[in-house]
Amino acid sequence: MSTEVLAAALAGCFCVAVPWGARKRRIPVERVRASVRPRRAVGEPRHGSYEALVRTSAPAEVIAPAVDLAKRYCWVTNTLRHPPEIAYRIEQEPCRSGRHRPTDKRF
Question: In which residue ranges of the chain is pLDDT below 50?
């Protein structure tokens, strides 16, 4: 499902952002893995929350400052926290017969 891709994007962003944050904070870390568990919003066709789990070779109390920095700089996290406006467009493809003219409609 496409919602799984969204959760994977969040996990992937953390796999990049946590090591970056660790380097910025001069925290040695050899390995970082992240997983995200989405939770469905009751009665709605969307996720209501996400739980991100970060597994590292560093102790939690040592890596925590890097995770905090990652939360601030992860683009996916920031996009989910402050959803962008979405514009939808419909474009008609030309028919092979050429009978219909293409239109461009925004709604």
Answer: none
